[in-house]
């Protein structure tokens, strides 16, 4: 049986780890967790999100702006996140309403689609 989600993976261009850490660890405030030694040579890094993780891998030749695939982060103050991201020059995109939730989307500096969602 499937018991839950262990992790999700997004990708960034090869060699962009420093810029990705600045965004994901700095702007979003997600703590980095150590990758197993057997995977460290592959580039990228892992982030802790509650009791799960987001793996930031590296790959080139991907049009991240054309995908609907995304990570949705559950937040407690959607308005504050909107202001924080706009202060970083990141445009909020309005998504289709979902009953019981308020949300918005944006693209990270690499084109990955990201959603911030708050239960009402």
Give a structural overview:
With 120 residues, this protein is an alpha/beta fold. Helix content is 18%, strand content 32%. It has two helices and seven strands; from the N terminus they run βαββββαββ. The protein has a four-stranded mixed beta sheet, with helices on one face. A three-stranded mixed beta sheet has the order 5-7-6, covered by helices on one side. A hairpin with a 2-residue loop joins β3 and β4. The mean pLDDT is 95. Pfam families: Glyoxalase (PF00903). InterPro entries: Glyas_Bleomycin-R_OHBP_Dase, Glyas_Fos-R_dOase_dom, VOC_core. Residues 4-119 form the VOC domain. This is VOC family protein.
SS content category: alpha/beta
**What Rg do the Cα atoms give?**
15 Å
Number of helices: 2
Kindly report how far apart the N and C termini lie.
Answer: 31 Å
Which descriptor suits the 3D outline?
globular
Strands of the largest sheet, in order across it?
Answer: 1-4-3-2
Largest sheet: 4 strands, mixed
Order of helices and strands: EHEEEEHEE
**Beta-strand percentage range:** 25-35%
Mean pLDDT across all amino acids: 95
Q: What low-confidence regions span 5 or more consecutive residues with pLDDT below 50?
A: none
Protein name: VOC family protein
Pfam family, one: Glyoxalase
InterPro entries: Glyas_Bleomycin-R_OHBP_Dase, Glyas_Fos-R_dOase_dom, VOC_core
Domain VOC: 4-119
